Amino acid sequence: MLNIVIFGAPGSGKGTQSERMVEKFGLNHISTGDVLRAEIKNGTELGKTAKEFIDQGQLIPDELMIDILASVLDGFKDSKGVIFDGFPRTIAQAEELKKMLAARGQEVSIMLDLNVPEEELMKRLIKRGKDSGRADDNEETIKKRLLVYNTQTCPLIEWYKNEDKYFHIEGHGQLEEITEQIVEAISSVARS
Ligand code: ATP
Ligand code: MG
Fold this sequence. Notes:
With 192 residues, the protein is of the alpha/beta class. The chain has helices at 14-25, 32-41, 45-55, 62-74, 91-103, 118-132, 139-153, 155-162, 175-191, and strands spanning 2-8, 28-31, 81-85, 110-115, 166-170. It has a 5-stranded parallel sheet with strand order 2-3-1-4-5, sandwiched between helices. It is globular, with a radius of gyration of 16 Å. The chain starts with a strand and ends with a helix. The model has no long low-confidence stretch (mean pLDDT 96). Adenosine-5'-triphosphate (ATP) is lined by residues 8, 10-12, 14-15, 32-33, 36, 53-54, 58-60, 65, 86-87, 89, 93, 136, 145.
């Protein structure tokens, strides 16, 4: 089983590249952001709670996020592997993911870190906000999200380096070239 963590700042292209990997390798995809947006759209209690955090550019509390992830994961039967997109975002989430996978006799195969300069992220997210109307893609909230990323999420880079799972991807450039780097990285762990 391939368990791939796709990692990077807001707007780094996690969703776009994940879709390509789903097609190429037939993996299941968990995007925690998409799960939360679906809950908001359906007006559930969870969605109401999530919206308050997302609109502030903050992370949803770990306990809540971990429960959501566990239930999505349990829904995947006979899976070839999973792409975790937007999870983990904190050390606590990474530790929990490790436990959850271990309980299933599995582990994270690789962590792909999509590197994109901050001014490019800003440009992409503002454009996405205009095109899609995503409420958290406005300049003020983007700045908060980048700060949250730099303080709460970036420590995961060292954490995954210690686990020997870290893989640097140059996330600024042609979509195809980025996909190629990712395919190569995944193929190398799939072989081993
Ligand atoms: P990208 O553009 O690369 O897909 P993103 O940061 O813009 O990344 P999402 O991953 O869709 O967007 O996340 C949107 C919001 O949902 C986050 O800002 C956060 O509030 C919440 N969220 C998503 N995943 C988590 C998580 N694992 N823990 C806590 N909050 C989360
Ligand atoms: Mg996304």
